Amino acid sequence: FLVHKSSSFLVPRVSPSSRRRLAPAAGATSLKMSSTSKESIAAPVARRDEKGFVLAGKLPPSDPGYWADGERSKPSIRQSAGSAEALLDPPVRISDPYGWMRDEDRTDREVLDHLEKENAYTERLTSRLGELRGNLYDEMVAAIKETDYTVPTAREDGYLYYSRTFAGKSYKSYCRAPLADNENWIETAGKWDGSADSPVLTGEVAYLDVNRLAEGRKYCAPGAIEPSPPNAEGVSEFVAYTVDFSGNEVTELFVKNVATGEIVDHDPDLETYGDVRWGADDRTLFYAKMDEQKRPDRLYRRIIGSDGPDELLYREDDELYWVGLSKSFDGEFLFVSSGSKETSETHFLDLKDPDAKLQCVAKRRKKVLYYVDHRAGNWYITTNVGGTPNMQLMVSEAVADSEDRWRDVALGDEKLFDGGYDRSIDALKSFRSHSVATGREGGLPQVWVISYDDETSANVKSFVRLEFDEDAFDVGLGTNLRNAADSVVVSYSSLVTPSSSIEIPLDAPTDAEARTVLKEQEVAGYDKSQYACERVTVRSRDGETEIPVSIVYRADTMDQVRKGATVPTHLYGYGSYGHCMEASFSITRRALLDRGMVYVIAHVRGGGEMGRQWYEEPKGAKYLCKKNTFNDFVDVARWLTEDRKITTPEQLSCEGRSAGGLLIGASVNQAPELFRAALLGVPFVDVVPTMIDASIPLTIVEWEEWGNPNEEKYHQYMMEYSPINNVRPGARYPSCLLTGGLHDPRVQYWEPSKLAAEIRHQSDSETSGPVCIKIDMAAGHFSASDRYKYLRELAFDYAFLLDQLGLAE
User: Fold this and answer.
1) Which residues are catalytic?
2) pLDDT tens string 618-665
3) Starting from the edge strand earliest in sequence, which strands make up the sheet with 487-493, in order?
4) Least packed by Cβ within 10 Å: which of 21, 127, 250, 690?
5) d(CA 495, CA 473)
6) 90 burial class (0-12, 13-18, 19+ CB within 10 angstroms)?
7) How far apart are CA 150 and CA 219, in angstroms?
8) What is the pTM of this model?
9) Which residues of the chain carry a pLDDT beneath 70?
10) Cα separation values, 318 from 65, 80, 274, 323, Å
11) Residues 576, 656: Cα–Cα separation, whole Å
12) Per-residue pLDDT at 783
């Protein structure tokens, strides 16, 4: 789908049905400017301290910022321990007139009053959109199957595991049923009457109802949910789970007896990172704890029922590295990973040996990433060792300090994944008889099946890629819980095809007749023939890079464009960390499409759509080439308005979340005249002031993504794109809606608050659109945990957007 050469496709379609449109055909809509921007409602005026500043670079001991604590016992960190770059000396002063908005405790009355005024202003300004918000919400809810279930999946304990949702209830209920009573679960589930009171499968038991956990709480987000290993009777007696009750990503750990409902283990004072894994038995748990910067840095072993303290097994002192834990798919090893964005190291614990100690798979080497799986006495390693542009697949005996034993996984003389530009591997899951790899080829997500000579061999017998009928799609692994399974479940969708779970035999992965569609996403009122999509590439301003672009729309909307009309268009982007914005199906996107909008995804550099080279230096968008992300996005916007002529600047909106909010902030600063409206969700926009200060959570680990503005090498470059530092005085800015969560540890609430104040102060108030902020006072980075509240928030965002584009009516 995302390849270098330009091409496009249209899904075959028939004439639109007679179903009543929610709005006139896009080409026939006369653009009505929102009256929101002209209403005489005064925005809050934030106190501006012109003397406020932060210092970048090397601080003298006499400076209050030199010390990390009030006792002046520990200097603040200004760069990573291994950095050889020079600090700015003397330090450079950076204006920070709204720095007073930062309150780590979330208790400062002036700050809270300001946020409440901002929320009140936004509500007053948009209150007349209440009916539209209600309609959008009703449409979204009507499109989903509220009472539903996920694909039941067998574990080694003899149960099928799945989750259920119920109409009117906000959270999932996690269930299981005996496999012996449901050998043909598809047939059994097919007889379910669709009601909330009836079991989907015979013998169904709800072992964790999140709706009950959420009672009386404003926020409830489960983390890990792990049934225990079978006991001596072969029964998984317990479930361990973690829950975040505040949105700050700090979780509590619980262990519940499934049969009785009793909480058999819980320490309310124990704060964990969110992940938990069982050991070889149902009494041993492993979990991670965090330091003051919310960095997971320690691994503990906990024995349920023991009076002794939990055992510290591993501690990572380098602030660049995060600790994570996982188990091999065969359950034989616990893996403890410690990684930065460029270097990683993994230790293993043999769960079969009660006296085993942690050992290192391969010692860390600068700028070498590797990830480990286990099968039949061998490590299977995905790595960029040797500086390859993409990850390779290698194998070695499952021993400690194995780096000198790594060898390529090959079929004959052909390496399966050589780390080159054409084919990349992201992850590997090893079943007993096969391995299944996920990655990218030709710009598309792909899945490959690797078969071996036998269950104990590492010799590759065949290597095949799964093929699908559509030219463009999103595919990845579904839920697979049994190492001994003879099939793999994948999840598949496209821009116009709802998601489905497909079971594929590992011994016959290319046999389309042998595939079984286990479950398809049901979308009420959706007629695929009324929609179409394209894939195109847009030449960037450098004259050589082709930017992949995904476009989806109603067929009758594009008919208007072909007749010469322009239509409202929404441009979405992300472009950081090597993460891909896949061309997948979205139920909620229909709310825009059915009102005559075109939806566009710009797969800008900084993502991983074209492999890691799309992300890494020298031609990706990291460190000193980060501006490629913003340039690509603006280039796509210009192409939409000037070359393809789908839309005009007065009909074009844009959106990004988190690091995607940085994309929107920098792009709007670069070309504010290109956009009518912008949505910035939990946006990382206070880039330089944030990245200077190592006391802010995530700052240190992010130095390997953006660079460190305390250092001479990166300071000026980052200053040139940091949104808060580049708002254009006197410019006409689009209407902006910025959202945040008071308890967000990833992008602090003050970032959108400061940018909104700066835009209002600097931009031309006569020609610019309104700037609104909506801070959720009970949420964190990932918005509402309540599915209905999430849809209400999305309806709020879309109503703002539609109003600014003249589609509110």
Assistant:
1) 658, 744, 781
2) 999 999 999 999 999 999 999 999 999 999 999 999 999 999 999 999
3) 474-477, 487-493, 500-505, 516-520
4) 127
5) 7
6) exposed
7) 23
8) 0.92
9) 1-39, 782-783
10) 21, 8, 21, 10
11) 11
12) 66
